[in-house]
Predict the 3D structure of the following.
Amino acid sequence: MTSTQPAARIPKTGALSPDHLKYLKERALFCRLETVRLIQIAKVGHYTSVFSCAEIFAALYYDTMRLKPGVPDWEDRDRFTMGKGHAAVGLYPILADLGFFDPALLDGYTKLGNPLGDHPDMRKVPGVDFSSGSIGHAISGALGMVLAGRAQGRDFHAFALVGDGEMQEGQVWEAALSAAHHEAANLTVIVDRNGYQLDGNVDDVIGVEDLTAKWQAFGWDVHRVDGHDMTALATLLRQVRADTNRTRPCCIIADTVKGKGVSYMETEPGWHLGYLAPEDEARAIAEIKQGAGL
Amino acid sequence: MTAPLHKDSWQYRQLNALNPGLQTLSDGLTDLVEEGHPVLACTADLQYSNGLSKFAEAHPDRFLQFGISEQNMVSAAAGMAAAGSMPFVATFASFLALLCCEQIRTDVAYSALPVRLVGHHTGISLGFYGTSHHATEDIAIMRSIADLTVVAPADNAQLRAAIRASANHAQPIYFRIGRGRDPDVYDEDAPFEFGKAISHGNGEDLTIIATGSMVHPALEAAQSLRAEGRSVGFLDMHTIKPLDRDAILKAAGYSRAIMTVEEHTVLGGLGGAVAEVLADEGAGCRLIRHGIEDEYSLIAPPTHLYAHYRLDADGIAARAREALG
């Protein structure tokens, strides 16, 4: 590569500074607002699936992960896979913000010929490490990346963000067994425990708890955190990323609120998919800004 | 509580509740229940997408929610059939036919269990939800499985008729259906028989053979070609397996060319099946296979995709004109 290549962003350790904490909160706000904007272009989208993991996206991409802004294919970068691929609308603005592709592409979201669809495509979108759309594949994909990294002598980490409804998919548990067996310590799974899936409350559809006990029983280190508490979340992710003494993969169960930031979305599971007319968009934006903690 | 939302804002449960096409599956299953059949309806976290929420409300004791575990659902349905029930499992066609292919082959078809598999939102109808959600290989996969009937109804009336006819069908069935928005082709009482194509006229220049959601636009295309003075026949090939070979050979006798139209790859689907018949029988009739070429479908709003792949009425007619000269 050329000498103009940007420097790698090395993950930080220890406590977050107040300024950096504020910055991460701003990035989560940016993620939510851009999601509202892009869904206005498509006229349909998964607002609430992004709103539950906006802090997770922001913490990973602006703090935890080892990346080189502007160089999406850097071989030593940390990887990210997403089981809940329908939250990609919140990831694209972040990837563009990191210089992985031209932000102007965002304006053509879901249009014919544009690479940005409801689910992310690694062959079309620079910065997307693994395609998704069929629930349950993301942990296996991330595991494969970690195993390949080990074989190549690389120490990058892989983070897989999965839904709590996704825990119903059999492949999740095949991946959980094999990751522990292979001592894939560079693999971290984050379960976005927002409580809802398409058909209703996860615990009414097919219950998944006790998640902590299940992942522990499969041989993983398990942490549980408030997925909207940026201080707790980013601090935990720093610790997990920096801990080189582990031999077990790590599962973080992030307790979240589906639709976090827009009051009526937080209480109605039908908002898994929907559309806000411009008249309502302004009200939603005001609510989101008010709740950003800035 | 905040002020009510604008009339143009929506969330999907409200929107789907307004789509009458999505009620057909539930209504068809209710027909069977009323006839005394031991129906069980199974979904994998998509009851509002396939409309089974209506059946669940009417018959909660016959509704089984599997969450996001499609393979588990298909094998469990095989168990239900083995125990004497009449299971219908429904999920997106991309997941049913591709993710659950092995369960369908080994647990359902090889075991000769009369499970009814309903793959919905097929073809490219899920638009920009992603190529992962498009089912453009499912006909080819499903029709290669022995003893599995493969049927793609053209509209809601035909779907309901096919569900009614399935009560006396001993084999497992793969129903390939759209998203409940296909325009009507048939009346409620139109006849339906598995394996018997429905003729919409004979033609000397061309016979169009279409299946599923392509029947309506292909019929429109046939009308516009006829209006130009061309002699165009038409077959609704709702059953892809067992295929109505006689109807195809009869069309090959009438017409100089046959054009198959499907929302599917041109490899191995309806076009492939018709090609096999023509080659097997040495029928010297030109075949044009119209569908999606050997490539991954793009993403865009559905109507834009149908136009792009020339799978709307204008596109189908244009493709026929090109072929006929």
Observations:
- Chain A touches chain B at residues 42, 85-86, 110-113, 117-119, 121, 131-136, 165-166, 168-170, 197-199, 202, 205-206, 263-264, 268-277, 279-280, 283 (CB under 8 Å).
- Chain A has one domain: 18-291.
- The longest helix of chain A spans residues 18-42.
- Chain A has a mean pLDDT of 96.
